[in-house]
Amino acid sequence: MSARGADTPAQAERPREITPAELGFTPQPAVRWLAPGVLVATGVKALLATIFGAYADKRELQGSLPARVYRHGDDETGEVWFDFVADLGDGFNATYTVASLLAADELDVPSAGKLPRGEMLIMGGDQVYPAASVTAYRNRTKGVYAAALPHVDGKRPTLYALPGNHDWYDGLTAFLRVFAQGRPFGGWDTAQTRSYFAIQLPQRWWLFALDTQFDDHIDAPQLAYFTEAAKQLREGDSVILCTPSPSWVDAHTSRGAEAWDTIEYFDTTIVRPAGATIRVMLSGDKHHYSRYAERGGGRQEVTCGLGGGYLTTTDELPESVVLPPPTTRIRAAGPSTRYDLAARYPEKRQSRRFAAGILRLPFRNPGFWGVAGIIQSLIVLAVLYGLAGPFGDRPRGFFALVASWTPAVLLAVLVVVGWVAFARLDLRTSRLRGTVFGVAHAAVHLGLSLAWGLLITELYRDVIPDDVLSNWVSFVVILVGLPTVLGLVHSEVVAVYLMIASRFGINLNELMAGQSIEDHKGFLRMHIAADGTLRIYPIKVEKVCRRWVADPDGAPEDPLLRPHGVQLRPQLIEDPVVVTPRDEPNR
Fold first, then answer.
1. Coil/strand/helix, residue 526
2. How far apart are the first and last CA of the chain?
3. Nearest to 236 by CA among 277, 265, 288, 195
4. Which residues contact 106 (CB under 8 A, 6 or more apart)?
5. What is 527-556 written as a DSSP string?
6. Would you give the DSSP letter of residue 390?
7. pLDDT single digits (tens) 501-518
8. Residue 86 contacts by C-beta under 8 Å, 6 or more apart in sequence?
9. Residue segments in the chain with a per-residue pLDDT below the cut of 50
10. DSSP 275
């Protein structure tokens, strides 16, 4: 690996140009999630990971790796600063914008003052998109962060990472190679030996990070690790629990309740028996910021997935949740408590305004345009075959009629099945509602296909001269013009469908994935004070930088690249969230 890549030493020559040869990695554009290649590849990897995950669970093998409990904090002051970022490793502009803010020696944030860089950085899941590999980590994550913080004089910060579903698509193979072998990320050191970890913090605070593998379960070696770590807990200790996804948001759904039960089981078997309390839960997975506060208490549930992935909306978030939900199957579960939605970013109105951006779908995802054109052209040709029969002769007789319409019927069935499955992607969508929207969406496409067929048939009979159809022009029109026009029209139909369906809570993720919005990013900066108070500073940057220049004359600790023509302006999403330790009421 290049010296200017992920393992940048202080003596390495700084790049003079933004090229892979100079940087040691290849900056990547934002993933176009509705591009056919990405859809197929990611879908296949997700399917394989789901099918074989239980049979090739790397967590079972991690039991043979060293089991360490880590410790951070200033022994003299009894304080510690640390950062949390999640859903990073997408497009270079967004990821490097966040990384450069995290790497800064301190941030001057309006109404918060100067906030020093964290002694440790917690990556909360989905460190790379669309799927994990050593190359993808180098180009989308490790190289980017090493460029933001190539070197540190004195005490170096430590980086810990928790895998998300995209990190799991190769069974954690690349994740463990990148994060669990003691290799530095530029100025950040890595220390973890497993995909989960426990960290002792000052003032009787702890941070536990759970690897629940697609929200499924906690493996036996991991339970044994945390059981041993919990022996160091004392009555009244406070715990920050990091999980790969915010299961509290969907705990009222059947799939979400299962995921929450995994967390509830961990609490009832590991944390509470030691006399400790989970005071804060942190997660990414949802590419926005939201905070649920315990009604009448001080516990907080925080989602912050703003590290670099495409932005998602917040208008569908429930105004309150009950935890544990009444449907929990954990017999020793604690009493149910209501949590209210206290803050979100982007705001609800702003989230709804983002929906209109999906109308640029074919231009943001030209591959989707092309594939839609090819599929719709095949359907239209099948309709033409049914209308006119082979070689322009109308079919005669029942069997000839059935034979001529069979291709169109088969394609229509595939279209209906495909769009129904698409509408039911979101597990929060009821089966009936998803089916209704899927059938309606398919009906529009099929109706247009029939209309195109009728129009072309009439043009062929009454408008277009026969000699035009006998030359190469007609071939070019059919081969190029028809897919181009049909692809554009039907892509816009999909866009309009996503706008409408999102109002009913359907395909919300696809609505935003199709836009790949890179702005509105952020992370959490946290501080445990000498009195034991935890303050959470939710940081945002409204606009990411899109133009960078090399800084060859910078100091060894300066970022390798700096913004060109703009200044990154970190701000607070909301006032600092204050969490008091143990069972004191929240201030």
1. strand
2. 49
3. 277
4. 114, 115, 116, 117
5. EE-TTS-EEEEEEEESS----EEE-TTS-T
6. G
7. 888 888 888 888 888 899
8. 123, 124, 125, 126, 164, 283, 284, 285, 304, 305, 306, 307
9. 1-11, 391, 468-469, 584-587
10. T
